[in-house]
Amino acid sequence: MEQKIMAGIGGIGIYGIISICIFFAFFTLTLLWAFRLKQNYLQHMEALPLDGGEKNSADSIQLKKL
Amino acid sequence: MKIETFKYDNRIVRAFAIATVVWGIVGMLVGMLAAVQLFFPDANLNLQFITFGRIRPLHTNAVIFAFVGNGMFMGIYYSLQRLCKARMFSDFISWFHFWGWQGIIVAAAVTLPLGLTTSKEYAELEWPIKIAIAVVWVAFTINLIGTILKRREKHMYVAIWFFLATALTVAVLHITNSMTMPAGWFKSYSMYAGVQDALVQWWYGHNAVAFFLTTPYLGLMYYFLPKAANRPIFSYRLSIIHFWALIFLYIWAGPHHLLYTALPDWAQSLGMVFSLMLIAPSWGGMLNGLLTLRGAWDKVRQDPVLKFMVVAVTAYGMSTLEGPLLAIKTVNSLSHYTDWTIAHVHTGALGWNGFLTFSMLYYLYPRLYRTTLWSTKLANYHFWIGLLGMMFYVIPIYVAGITEGLMWKQFTKDGFLQYPNFLETIVQVVPMFRLRAIGGTLYLVGTFMMAYNLYRTAKAGQFEPDTEAQAAPLEKTSAVVHGKLSWHRLLEGKPLLFTVLSLVAILIGGIVEIIPMYLIKQNVPTISSVKPYTPLEVLGRDLYIREGCLGCHSQMIRPFRSETERYGEYSKAGEFVYDHPFLWGSERKGPDLAREGGKYPDAWHYNHMDDPRATSPGSIMPRYSWLLTQKLEIDSLPARLNALRKVGVPYPAGYENGPAQKDLQAQADKVVANLKQGSVKADPDKEIVALIAYLQRLGTDIKSAPVTTAVK
């Protein structure tokens, strides 16, 4: 769709078409990459911020209740 | 396996946290002062140093680079150490970064009120400070990459990707847009002129928003939101797609700031299409953030940290939907130059950056001081008053912006402008400016409440300068798994390779925009009657820059009948070939000045500058009475002309040593004679004379001679 929109723009020339093509190639590769990732890796990454390695975690501190 | 014990540096996090709060309050106070002057111009107390044109850039620089900048560093220094399971690479560099950054902020706070500015939005600081920014930024990048290299965690979490992209892209943007020719210690002229300068500036300006206000904060969202909710991020896959699509697309969208200007049509349309595509990754990121809270919304009711985060992420979604919509040419034709843009940026600044910063501060203080927050109730009050303040700020300004846009375009049924006097349209929205100031005050009151709450929290607890942590050292791993090459592992295992690939992703968009810039240079239709500014006009133009006139007056008439009827012939690219820097502006609180020359007599300008309300009752323009009494500084004229020649303005060799001064004197005498005809007695050596000479020149090159276009 974008190619059609871009082609209709006067004087856009080759830049616009190349730009869109590069983006879609890039985006497709990113999608392929993301969906090929293993589940155990994803689970590890999702939980990564939760373990900061602190010996005496400050996260045990609770905020005061209202 | 051997477990290593090490310490996280909390001192640097605390230092950036304090700086965030202090500069946040300062930046917002300056914003308040600017906001009040928009309905009460005498609030500048007739002092040039605190007049709107000079403090507007001070406000934007303070909130972007001082408030959000320090907030970003606070969050990065806290999260990076924990995500890498390593102390920062170098304590010395950390503190060099901290004090260097604060020094730059102080330098900005001194130079901008003095009128020392390049005039390029969000890049106003003069060249010595720009060099300092580059040095400090490189130090930060070394510290960032050094920490990543010595990490104990095998994988690089997505937040770190966002931090790396920020460090690299800001460096590229800053250096490209800062190419200037010095003309003394605190004066320089952009290497680029007119259309090229505009394109580079808005490529920078747009991506300053993208890579200073957005990508680092997204990284922080991906760290602090799961931490505060104590649950993993909704989808790590989505975060990967979010990252690559966002950094790839963002860099292309800059030209949407220049729609319907003299920029070539195809570049404008490219900017528009890529802006629209940006909605997808932006909303992917917002949904990833909000869906992390699925099943934990009960916590949001109790925890002010999460409350601030939810509004921040929602505001991110709202502004990243609105931004692309504003980039549609037809919408932009109404919104550009109006307060709509101001409302848009404040949804992002107050909602996304402000609220996420507040949430991080509320999260960090109790942890740094190993105590509980002094008052959760006060934090909740802050949340509500901040939210109310934000609404009171943006809604009136949306109304003002749309009102302005519609009034500027309104024709009578006979085909005449309904509101031919620009002043009518501004007077109409002044009540909205008052409401906006109330909203800003509420937001500021909330920030003061937070500052007090954090202070009491710090008093009640005990600061932990170093947090002890344990982790196993990183094993040497191969990118080859089960005999196959794992690209993902290769990429993550080599941060430098990752960095290079991120750089390639942002450079593709940059190059596609920059190469046409050079093509434009060869193809800008030059206009034979367009000549370089005279010496007096050069100095007058520099005064226009010093006073920040472009904060309220554009110099770019778009090709709409509503604009050509009001201001005259639309602006052509060829008219700006000697404009170093370009002064198109981005906002109209006053009329466009592109064709101002010859519209009014010299004496009118003199009286208008002395007291705008004497010539234009109801005007919100400040008085510039100091221009009438201050002596024009001409000693630097040779250096200025020389610098301009070096960037391509064809002044004859040796012109600055004698002939220029004679021409200046002759033109000043002529202005004084014109003023005398208008019953105004003035000395030729005053600043006002130079400014009048410049204003009377604007747009006259095309008026004075028939337009003959030629291609270089």
Outline of the structure:
With 66 residues, chain A is mainly alpha-helical. In chain A, 58% of the residues lie in helices and 0% in strands.
Question: Any overview of this molecule?
Answer:
The complex is a heterodimer of chains A (66) and B (712). In chain A, 58% of the residues lie in helices and 0% in strands. Chain A is mostly helical and 66 residues long. The N terminus and C terminus of chain A are likely disordered. By secondary structure, chain B is mainly alpha-helical. Helix content of chain B is 64%, strand content 4%. Chain B contains 26 helices and eight strands. In chain B, strand 2 and strand 3 form a beta hairpin. The longest helix of chain B is centred in the middle third of the chain and has 39 residues. Chain B is globular, with a radius of gyration of 26 Å. At the A-B interface, helix 1, helix 2 and helix 3 of A face helix 2, helix 6, helix 7, helix 8 and helix 13 of B.
Through-space gap between termini of chain B: 71 Å
Question: How many extended strands of chain A?
Answer: 0
Rg of chain A, alpha carbons = 23 Å
Number of helices of chain A: 3
Query: Oligomerization state of this entry?
Result: heterodimer
Unreliable runs of chain B: 705-712
Q: Which descriptor suits the 3D outline of chain A? A: elongated
CATH architecture of the largest domain in chain B: Up-down Bundle
Helicity of chain A, as a percent range: 55-70%
The main pleated sheet of chain B reads as:
2 strands, antiparallel
Secondary structural class of chain B: mainly alpha
For the biggest sheet of chain A, the summary is: none
Range of helix content of chain B: 55-70%
Uncertain residue segments of chain A:
1-10, 62-66
String of helices and strands of chain A: HHH
Question: Kindly state the mean pLDDT of chain B as a whole number?
Answer: 90
Number of domains of chain B: 2
Compute the separation of the termini of chain A in Å. Answer: 53 Å
How many helices of chain B in DSSP terms?
26
